[in-house]
Design goal:
By secondary structure, the chain is of the alpha+beta class. It is built from 5 helices and 17 strands. The protein has 2 domains: about 200 residues, no CATH class; about 170 residues, Jelly Rolls (Sandwich). Helix content is about 20%, strand content about 25%. Strand 9 and strand 10 form a beta hairpin.
């Protein structure tokens, strides 16, 4: 084709899907402000990025772990404390997973059948955490898995309780019968399919995450949180409490929850109506038990509000910023539990005027502007060390 500039038209499905996705974003029913709309367009960029990565890194013959969810591609109320990895599977094929255990609070594996959609959740076929691995003294491990009927994806989550001290491990996957073999040469038909997959993935992911919170969070009364329960979807040893908030600018939600010593990881986060995490790098929109302060009675008391809730309007250690969002989801997580949780382990909720928070929480101590900026700087540095994109 030397000298020819004829287009193959391979990208047309993706172009059409981007236009459709933009309409979905621009007309989302929960948009109230221009800031909401702009956030939607930023969210759209992440969805496009995810769709391209999903389609073009998808290789059933030479599988690799990809990182589709991170600070630049948020989805599914992504956990600010987690690094996510996905590898695609073919039924009946043998795989070897190798790695070196880092020092994170939890490392879990889950095999999913199918994928989430606007109509239903994916099926969890198997789930376990690193306690079931044979880990050598140097942290290395290896296990073999033959993909069972219906297996489509292996998901790995590495979760961090202490952002400052815990470190990531390493992870690889091999398909036993294709390792050492070169990839197939590029073909027009293969590339055409990949662009078509990216197009379908883009629009379906937006529709899925628009619908998903209505299966769970938004079935609950506003400004309430559920008792801890095993997380839907089959995550090994994880319990969660869910809800959603609606707060005026001068209101605050106080969430009180006992600090749990029977798990390696415990955390709370708020999100946006895009069902995604909000800025957890330059704002404090999540806290783990390692980052939070517990009162003398062993209870962590978090304050969710737009304005700083401390004395004289100062920020406080356990403040979760709503960053301009009047509504959004809330989730508490416990992982690597050694016992089932009960309602007594769960949160209680109280809505109060933000100016009256110090009256309700007499132990509350304010932070100076400089002290709070130091906390944010520590978050930025920790994310930079931990996250990959």
């Amino acid at each position: 084709m030397s000298g020819s500039s004829q287009s193959l038209g391979l990208t047309q499905p993706l172009q059409d899907a981007i236009a459709e996705a933009e309409e979905l974003i621009a007309n989302a029913p929960f948009i109230r402000t221009e800031a909401d709309r702009l956030e939607g367009y930023d969210y759209l960029a992440g969805r496009i990025r995810m769709a391209m990565q999903t389609a073009f890194d998808y290789d059933l013959e030479q599988p690799v772990f990809i990182n589709p969810t991170h600070q630049f591609s948020r989805q599914g109320l992504d956990n600010p404390d987690a690094v996510y990895f996905n590898a695609y599977l073919r039924e009946g094929v043998e795989y070897v997973v190798r790695g070196r255990r880092g020092t994170s609070a939890d490392l879990s594996f889950q095999v999913m059948g199918g994928s989430y959609s606007a109509d239903s959740a994916a099926t969890s076929l198997m789930a376990f955490d690193d306690r079931e691995l044979d880990i050598a003294e140097d942290g290395s491990f290896e296990f073999t898995y033959v993909a069972e009927p219906g297996a489509k994806t292996l998901i790995v989550r590495e979760v961090f309780n202490d952002w400052d001290t815990e470190s990531r491990g390493t992870l690889t996957i091999e398909r036993v019968d294709t390792i050492g073999r070169a990839r197939r040469p590029l073909a027009e038909e293969t590339l055409r399919k990949k662009y078509e997959v990216a197009a379908r993935s883009l629009t379906s992911s937006i529709q899925t995450w628009f619908a998903f919170p209505h299966f769970f969070q938004y079935k609950e009364p506003v400004n309430t949180l559920t008792a801890p329960a095993s997380t839907p979807g089959g995550l090994s040893s994880q319990f969660s409490s869910i809800g959603h908030y609606e707060l005026a600018e001068d209101e605050a939600m106080i969430v009180a929850v006992p600090r749990c010593e029977d798990c390696t990881y415990q955390a709370i986060q708020v999100g946006s109506d895009w069902y995604a995490s909000t800025d957890y790098e330059t704002h404090q929109t999540s806290l783990t038990k390692a980052q939070a302060v517990a009162d003398a009675d062993g209870v962590m008391r978090f304050v969710i509000s737009e304005r700083p809730p401390g004395p004289d309007g100062s920020p406080v250690a356990n403040w979760l910023e709503t960053t301009g969002h009047r509504t959004g989801p809330i989730m508490l997580r416990w992982q690597q539990l050694t016992r089932p949780l009960t309602a007594a382990d769960g949160p209680s909720v109280e809505i109060v005027p933000v100016d009256e928070v110090p009256k309700h929480l007499p132990e509350l101590a304010g932070l100076s502007t400089e002290e709070y900026a130091e906390r944010i700087a520590a978050r930025q540095r920790a994310v930079a060390r931990r996250m990959i994109s």
